[in-house]
């Protein structure tokens, strides 16, 4: 039976709080206890009360009545000394706040005043609002409040739109310095919809003087899907992606498009607020959420740091005192005519009154969450966690690192299938072998703890093709374990060699073994008709032994970008041992793939490291990308199950996939597919390895240099924080592995051995609507190490003024590939590149942004 801890890891936990926008009750320990008894984990409390609000309004009214009319000076500005008369908001008094430091303060989420307007075009209103905010933050910090919710910026002031967000951001920056131990949550709506905005009695916004408001007959637009995200982007940019700045996201009754939902999914959302009006009634009259809301909540609850949930103005808090008051209500005496019948009494007794139906529904939704998939359970703690890539050539890995790789349920199964198919083909095609006794010589280079050796032996047994197995490993500690495995598990069937694969001389042959002339024709082969002798420890040639060829060379040297752990260089050093006519390399080829992504959390984490690690912004990181947004996507072509991405696991040998199901029928949602393009590829054996020049021992590595320049169309505006890197590999024939999000489910579903690689940008690049992101990347070498260089450009696509719009919503593309070349679409059709335009006029590209050239030359992979 699973432990309690394991059971908790299987399904996400919900932490649910209660918020009342007009709360008058002082949150005392008694009230907090009542909330816990009702099933809530926390409560919100305003920092100040109506008394303080009224005091500020009185001061403002008195101040406005004493001001002189506004006037422009000779330079045409109103920012003059006569127009600037400051109103100072006095300090808080005991009558101004319901908060008091006590034992329950840790259960309280503070909420600042919503009636202020930090974005007001009137500097007087904006300054008063800023003073109120800072007074509230200072007192909240004194009381020990750890979590503070600040209502988001007001974006509309007549026809003025989003002009004051920078003032709001500047105030938040000051607040962050004033509350050093507070986590700040900017309370934002998912979309900007003016129909949902309404001034309430006592708001400061209507007090803005007309001279600061633009007058026009134009009607402001009503809905901007990315309007509130744009405001958030300004706030977090001004605050430099502060580690204590988060989003409290309000879920509307009708959710926006999936692209908007995914954008918020990539942001640091630590609170989801659900108003009572966002619920709908089911057939029995109980409040429920739509299937799309359920799907969204499920996605957020799969994040590494799952957000808390605040139910707003939904269910009141009932304490024992309230129950006593209810019981003391005077009821009129019942006469005989008022007594219920037996049937009525029985029906009444069956009724159950739920005083917190919204909370009960959310708790029920929690219990109906599907358990975490194997990939999710494996990835707990790894989501969006930055890790430096391995350097296995220069560092001997520890056993725990190998163990993590070996937990993969797919990779080694696929390797075994590839080896089995190669052995079967060898037998069917009657290829000659390199073994003196007719066995196929199979070498696992970089054997680690030996999982591939085990799989090779199993494949040999399953196919009936005998092999001569060799395991080559340079790690002296892993070599000890390989020897033990050979004694205990492999029955002495494996030749274990301690050597760097590039220095290995090949399988050792005794002089008594059959020579090429003596061996049966069609069963053995030497190297160019001769057997080379290997030097002894003293350096002398031995008469009794020589080196042979390898028929099948197996390796697992791939990194998160395919070649980033120097697989090409390692295999180049051992390729000369491969049977020159029939030799097989597993893997046979691999390719690197890229796509631009928005990853604010990763950017914030890297920025926090810059003071201690200046190279952090130019370091590619291995990371389980989760809270990201793909910036370049194609129109949805397939439907996936929601509320989660449901992963199936199985094998290609007839095993059917197993799926995690919920008790609620999954909703079919169309998800945009990322455009992931191939940067370059490598194949083995490589016929273009140069021969060392006479007198030189070092082979040039110039043949492994690569470069690429890729164009990605971006339909919606956003911010590029870096590049997501993936790989695809062909192990043998049609057996493939992939981390590419477009092809991984088709080629290797459920594989967990490799996380993607992330190439960061020092400074994020803003991308407008209908733009192109152009990525230039290099793989460079100086024959001692290998490093990468990359840069990103942003182009705005503009139509010629003579062209006419067709109303097409697809982004303009400039000869960009829609998907990785060779990606299987289920029918074997290759993706075709295409150019889509809005009208019949010419398209002009205007460069509006360019990054620095990033380079890992200082910390390149040593060869």
TrEMBL record:
<dbReference type="GO" id="GO:0016274">
    <property type="term" value="F:protein-arginine N-methyltransferase activity"/>
</dbReference>
<dbReference type="GO" id="GO:0051286">
    <property type="term" value="C:cell tip"/>
</dbReference>
<feature type="compositionally biased region" description="Basic and acidic residues">
    <location>
        <begin position="501"/>
        <end position="511"/>
    </location>
</feature>
<feature type="binding site">
    <location>
        <begin position="500"/>
        <end position="501"/>
    </location>
    <ligand>
        <name>S-adenosyl-L-methionine</name>
    </ligand>
</feature>
<keyword id="KW-0949">S-adenosyl-L-methionine</keyword>
<feature type="region of interest" description="Disordered">
    <location>
        <begin position="642"/>
        <end position="668"/>
    </location>
</feature>
<dbReference type="InterPro" id="IPR029063">
    <property type="entry name" value="SAM-dependent_MTases_sf"/>
</dbReference>
<dbReference type="Pfam" id="PF05185">
    <property type="entry name" value="PRMT5"/>
</dbReference>
<feature type="domain" description="PRMT5 TIM barrel">
    <location>
        <begin position="39"/>
        <end position="366"/>
    </location>
</feature>
<keyword id="KW-0489">Methyltransferase</keyword>
<dbReference type="InterPro" id="IPR007857">
    <property type="entry name" value="Arg_MeTrfase_PRMT5"/>
</dbReference>
<protein>
    <recommendedName>
        <fullName>Protein arginine N-methyltransferase</fullName>
    </recommendedName>
</protein>
<feature type="active site" description="Proton donor/acceptor">
    <location>
        <position position="556"/>
    </location>
</feature>
<dbReference type="InterPro" id="IPR035075">
    <property type="entry name" value="PRMT5"/>
</dbReference>
<dbReference type="GO" id="GO:0032259">
    <property type="term" value="P:methylation"/>
</dbReference>
<dbReference type="Pfam" id="PF17286">
    <property type="entry name" value="PRMT5_C"/>
</dbReference>
<dbReference type="InterPro" id="IPR035248">
    <property type="entry name" value="PRMT5_C"/>
</dbReference>
<dbReference type="Pfam" id="PF17285">
    <property type="entry name" value="PRMT5_TIM"/>
</dbReference>
<comment type="similarity">
    <text>Belongs to the class I-like SAM-binding methyltransferase superfamily.</text>
</comment>
<feature type="binding site">
    <location>
        <begin position="411"/>
        <end position="412"/>
    </location>
    <ligand>
        <name>S-adenosyl-L-methionine</name>
    </ligand>
</feature>
<dbReference type="InterPro" id="IPR025799">
    <property type="entry name" value="Arg_MeTrfase"/>
</dbReference>
<feature type="compositionally biased region" description="Low complexity">
    <location>
        <begin position="658"/>
        <end position="668"/>
    </location>
</feature>
<feature type="active site" description="Proton donor/acceptor">
    <location>
        <position position="565"/>
    </location>
</feature>
<feature type="site" description="Critical for specifying symmetric addition of methyl groups">
    <location>
        <position position="405"/>
    </location>
</feature>
<feature type="domain" description="PRMT5 arginine-N-methyltransferase">
    <location>
        <begin position="375"/>
        <end position="586"/>
    </location>
</feature>
<dbReference type="GO" id="GO:0071470">
    <property type="term" value="P:cellular response to osmotic stress"/>
</dbReference>
<dbReference type="GO" id="GO:0005829">
    <property type="term" value="C:cytosol"/>
</dbReference>
<feature type="domain" description="PRMT5 oligomerisation">
    <location>
        <begin position="589"/>
        <end position="856"/>
    </location>
</feature>
<dbReference type="GO" id="GO:2000100">
    <property type="term" value="P:regulation of establishment or maintenance of bipolar cell polarity regulating cell shape"/>
</dbReference>
<dbReference type="GO" id="GO:0005634">
    <property type="term" value="C:nucleus"/>
</dbReference>
<keyword id="KW-0808">Transferase</keyword>
<feature type="binding site">
    <location>
        <position position="473"/>
    </location>
    <ligand>
        <name>S-adenosyl-L-methionine</name>
    </ligand>
</feature>
<dbReference type="GO" id="GO:1903360">
    <property type="term" value="P:protein localization to lateral cortical node"/>
</dbReference>
<dbReference type="InterPro" id="IPR035247">
    <property type="entry name" value="PRMT5_TIM"/>
</dbReference>
<dbReference type="GO" id="GO:0071521">
    <property type="term" value="C:Cdc42 GTPase complex"/>
</dbReference>
<feature type="binding site">
    <location>
        <position position="402"/>
    </location>
    <ligand>
        <name>S-adenosyl-L-methionine</name>
    </ligand>
</feature>
<feature type="compositionally biased region" description="Low complexity">
    <location>
        <begin position="642"/>
        <end position="651"/>
    </location>
</feature>
<dbReference type="GO" id="GO:1903359">
    <property type="term" value="P:lateral cortical node assembly"/>
</dbReference>
<dbReference type="GO" id="GO:1990463">
    <property type="term" value="C:lateral cortical node"/>
</dbReference>
<dbReference type="GO" id="GO:0061246">
    <property type="term" value="P:establishment or maintenance of bipolar cell polarity regulating cell shape"/>
</dbReference>
<feature type="region of interest" description="Disordered">
    <location>
        <begin position="501"/>
        <end position="524"/>
    </location>
</feature>
<dbReference type="GO" id="GO:0006355">
    <property type="term" value="P:regulation of DNA-templated transcription"/>
</dbReference>
């Amino acid at each position: 039976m699973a432990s309690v801890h394991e059971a908790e890891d299987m399904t996400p936990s919900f932490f649910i709080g209660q918020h009342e926008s007009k709360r008058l009750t002082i949150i005392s320990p008694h009230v907090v206890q009542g909330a816990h008894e009702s099933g809530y984990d926390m409560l919100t409390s305003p920092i100040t009360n109506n008394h303080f609000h009224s005091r500020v309004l009185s001061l403002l009214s008195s101040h406005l009545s004493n001001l002189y009319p506004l006037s422009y000076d000779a330079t045409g500005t109103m920012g003059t000394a006569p127009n600037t008369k400051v109103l100072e908001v006095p300090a808080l008094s005991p009558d101004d706040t319901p908060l008091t430091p006590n034992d329950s303060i840790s259960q309280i989420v503070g909420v600042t005043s919503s009636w202020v307007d930090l974005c007001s075009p009137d500097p007087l209103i904006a300054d008063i609002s800023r003073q109120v905010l800072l007074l509230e933050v200072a007192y909240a910090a004194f009381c020990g409040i750890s979590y503070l919710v600040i209502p988001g910026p007001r974006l509309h002031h007549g026809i003025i739109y989003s002009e004051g967000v920078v003032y709001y951001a500047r105030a938040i920056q000051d607040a962050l310095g004033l509350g050093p131990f507070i986590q700040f949550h900017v309370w934002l709506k998912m979309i900007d919809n003016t129909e949902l905005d309404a001034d309430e009695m006592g708001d400061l916004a209507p007090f803005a003087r007309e001279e600061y408001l633009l007058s026009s007959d134009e009607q402001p637009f009503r809905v901007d899907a990315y309007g509130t995200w744009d405001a958030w982007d300004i706030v977090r940019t001004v605050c430099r992606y502060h580690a204590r700045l988060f989003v409290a996201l309000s879920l509307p009754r009708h959710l926006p498009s999936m692209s908007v939902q995914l954008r918020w999914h990539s942001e640091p959302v630590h609170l989801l607020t659900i108003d009572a009006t966002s619920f709908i009634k089911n057939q029995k009259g109980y409040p429920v959420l739509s299937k799309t809301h359920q799907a969204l909540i499920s996605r957020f609850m799969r994040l590494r740091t799952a957000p808390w949930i605040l139910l707003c103005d939904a269910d009141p808090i009932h304490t024992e005192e309230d129950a006593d008051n209810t019981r003391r209500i005077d009821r009129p005496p019942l006469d005989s005519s008022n007594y219920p019948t037996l049937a009525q009494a029985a029906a009444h007794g069956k009724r159950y009154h739920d005083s917190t139906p919204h909370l009960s529904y959310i708790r029920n939704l929690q219990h109906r969450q599907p358990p975490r998939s194997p990939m999710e359970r494996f990835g707990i703690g790894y989501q969006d966690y930055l890790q430096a890539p391995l350097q296995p050539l220069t560092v001997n890995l520890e056993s725990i690192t190998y163990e993590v790789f070996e937990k993969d349920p797919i990779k080694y199964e696929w390797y075994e299938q590839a080896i089995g198919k190669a052995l079967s083909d060898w037998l069917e095609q009657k290829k000659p072998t390199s073994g003196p006794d007719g066995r196929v010589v199979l070498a696992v280079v970089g054997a680690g703890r030996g999982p591939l050796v085990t799989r090779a032996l199993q494949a040999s047994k399953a196919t009936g093709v005998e092999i001569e197995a060799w395991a080559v490993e340079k790690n002296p500690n892993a070599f000890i374990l390989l020897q033990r495995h050979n004694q205990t598990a492999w029955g002495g069937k494996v030749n274990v060699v301690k050597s760097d694969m590039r220095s290995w001389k090949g399988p050792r042959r005794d002089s008594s073994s059959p020579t090429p002339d003596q061996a049966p024709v069609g069963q053995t082969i030497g190297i160019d008709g001769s057997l080379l002798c290997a030097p002894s420890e003293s350096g002398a040639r031995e008469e009794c032994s020589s080196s042979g060829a390898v028929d099948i060379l197996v390796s697992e040297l791939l990194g998160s970008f395919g070649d980033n752990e120097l697989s090409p260089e390692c295999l180049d050093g051992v390729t000369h041992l491969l049977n020159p006519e029939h030799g097989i390399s597993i893997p046979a080829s691999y390719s690197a793939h890229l796509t631009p992504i928005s990853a604010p959390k990763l950017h914030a984490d890297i920025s926090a490291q810059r003071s201690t690690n200046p190279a952090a912004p130019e370091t590619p990181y291995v990371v389980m990308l989760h809270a990201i947004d793909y910036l370049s996507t194609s129109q949805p072509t397939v439907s996936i199950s929601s509320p989660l991405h449901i992963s199936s696991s199985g094998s290609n040998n007839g095993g059917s996939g197993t799926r995690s199901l919920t008790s609620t029928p999954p909703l079919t949602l169309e998800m945009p597919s990322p455009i992931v393009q191939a940067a370059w590829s490598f194949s083995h054996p490589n016929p273009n390895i140069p021969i060392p020049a006479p007198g030189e021992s070092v082979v040039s590595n110039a043949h492994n240099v690569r470069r690429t320049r890729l164009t990605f169309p971006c339909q919606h505006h956003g911010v590029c924080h870096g590049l997501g890197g993936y790989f695809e590999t062909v192990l043998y024939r049609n057996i493939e592995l992939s981390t590419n999000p477009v092809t991984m489910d088709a080629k290797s579903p459920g594989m967990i051995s490799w996380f993607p690689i992330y190439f960061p940008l020092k400074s994020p690049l803003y991308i407008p609507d209908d733009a192109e992101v152009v990525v230039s990347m290099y793989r460079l070498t100086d024959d001692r190490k290998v490093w990468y260089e990359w840069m990103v450009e942003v182009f705005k696509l503009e139509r010629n003024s003579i062209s006419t719009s067709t109303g097409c919503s697809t982004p303009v593309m400039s000869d960009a590939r829609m998907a990785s070349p060779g990606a299987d679409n289920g029918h074997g059709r290759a993706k075709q590149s295409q150019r889509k335009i809005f009208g019949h006029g010419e398209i002009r590209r205007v460069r509006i942004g360019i990054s620095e050239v990033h380079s890992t030359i200082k910390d390149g992979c040593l060869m």
